[in-house]
Amino acid sequence: MNVVIVFESLWGNTAAIARAIADGVGESAHALSTAEATPDVVAAAGLVIAGAPVHAMGLPSEHSRESASRKPQGAGHLAADLSHPPMRDWLDALPAGPRLGAAFETRIRGPLGRGAASGIAHALESHGLTLIDGPRSFNVHLKTSSSESAALLFDGELDAAREWGELLSERALARR
Ligand SMILES: Cc1cc2nc3c(=O)[nH]c(=O)nc-3n(C[C@H](O)[C@H](O)[C@H](O)COP(=O)(O)O)c2cc1C
User: Fold this and answer.
1) pTM (2 decimals)?
2) How far apart are CA 64 and CA 111, in angstroms?
3) Domain range for residue 34?
4) Of all atoms in ligand 1, which is nearest to the CA of residue 108?
5) Which CATH number fits the domain that encloses residue 126?
6) Per residue in 5-22, pLDDT tens?
């Protein structure tokens, strides 16, 4: 089964989680940005796993992306990567079809507000996908010093993402 893990990621944390999920799923999986995961690619996938960072307790918006672009947050003050479209826009263009799906998010704080993953999960379902697990969160922390301000994954989160990928792969195969 073709599996795509689609991400929006301004400083690379959500992308790193997506790649770890892909490792857990196995060789059939590809981690792709919202720019790379074109409707054709997604239409050929049997399982679509989509994730985004939490911004202002929800999915990133034009406003939050614009505000992030003014906030150097990556190691060495990397500029936010806005080269790929927001997850919101990608979800709007998602081809409808009977596929399997799952949603994830990265966040700094505990579960406050709605988050990003529940909105992604809702959109996947409304495009005809069947969710094979509940929305999943992965935590990052802000490392700040006089020279650096970076969002970094907590220890263990990449392993947790790999394990989740394995679980989703097993569930998807059991439904074939
Ligand atoms: C504008 C903005 C708003 C944010 N709001 C929240 C928030 O409400 N809750 C939270 O836990 N993290 C929040 N964060 C932290 C992001 O979730 C964190 O930067 C993200 O997980 C890093 O992922 P990325 O490297 O893939 O962009 C916010 C970040 C930005 C830039």
Assistant:
1) 0.94
2) 19
3) 3-174
4) 11
5) 3.40.50.360
6) 999 999 899 999 999 999
